[in-house]
What does this fold into?
Amino acid sequence: MKSIMFVCLGNICRSPIAEGCAKKLAKEKSLDIVIASSGTSSWHVGEAPCANSIKVCKSHNVDIANYQASQISEQDILEYDLLIALDENNFNDLKDLGAKKVVKLGMYGYNSADVPDPYFFNGFEGFEKVFGMIEECVWNLFEKEF
It folds into this structure.
């Protein structure tokens, strides 16, 4: 069985969206994959995803309402087959933590571009843009890797 973990900074917006998209796609394709997400920081451990992440996912039939933020651990780095960073800072943080099997999600459709934090956009439109980018990259990831 393969396992993947999506990683952003706080694990309340981008990486839960990616986890939700990946779980939905794995179910649709009947794939047996362990899928999770985490953050490099401990700022939001135990919190639900932000309201706009839940809302944008729900509008695309992806349910992340019951997810809880976690911080990546040394055990995660050792156990997961692939760590997928949402941006360059997360990628570098994972490398600094000793991760060997790490890629950027943007490699799967956006020429390695960072998936931007939706909080840097004005309003809900940013969450729609980020969702679209994540969904496309997750689809391409599955096409290439699974």
